[in-house]
Amino acid sequence: MLKGCRSLGLDYPRSQPPMAYSILYHILQLVVILISIVNKSVSHTAREVYHYVAEDPVPDFVLCRECGGDLADSHYLVNRLSPEALIKSNQTLFGREEIEVQLLSNPLGIQFYVFTTSSAKCVSIGENWHNDFSWFPGYAWKLCFCSQCGSHVGWMFEPLKTATEDRSLPSAEGFYALVLDSVISETFSNSLLVVPKLYRN
User: Fold this and answer.
1) CA distance linking residue 81 with residue 23, whole number of Å
2) What are the pLDDT digits (tens) for 122-169?
3) Which phi and psi (to 5°) does residue 69 adopt?
4) Residue 141: how many CA atoms within 13 Å on its side-chain side?
5) Per residue in 58-78, pLDDT tens?
6) What integer pLDDT is reported at residue 71 of this predicted model?
7) Given strand 70-73, what is the order of strands in its sheet?
8) What does DSSP assign to residue 30?
9) 101 CB contacts (<8 Å, ≥6 apart)?
10) What are phi and psi of 155, to 5 degrees?
11) Which of 3, 27, 62, 98 has the fewest beta carbons closer than 10 A?
12) pLDDT recorded at residue 12
């Protein structure tokens, strides 16, 4: 097969991509070979298709650490900085680079590492928006709970002018601050479920 790939001008990537992309690359090579056998002409090489796919990877998902419930898609992660942050750091989280993680402290002195997202599937449990002690000036807040198990996973924030009693969730101008210790990535969760080679048949 390598000989057939080389005759078509296909080559393996020079750098080692993640395993999923490596497998995808090889599958695409086979597809190109099969198409070229049938059509005798291919408009895109496997390398071109591979690089197109690799530029827009499948998003990771943010899950509730308590129950595994889906909370957010990593495409919605945004960097909303708080002037109240004790520590700020850029981290790679949920398959995304340069996600701002902030250490915030509430009035009781309890500290939380949080990151922000423009959309989440958490819910508030019948409380009003609070204006006091907001980490983000100009925004009111509510507690945010996992819709599956009810665990506290963070806060939702809404601009003061639109934080009305009839609004239960943030508008497009609002956002969510999720507690890093209360969530887990779907990729990491799946890696815990993989059966070791020793136990496979």
Assistant:
1) 38
2) 999 878 999 999 999 999 999 999 999 999 999 999 999 999 988 999
3) -65, 145
4) 16
5) 578 999 999 999 999 989 999
6) 94
7) 70-73, 61-64, 183-185
8) H
9) 88, 89, 90, 91, 93, 113, 114, 115, 180
10) -135, 155
11) 3
12) 42
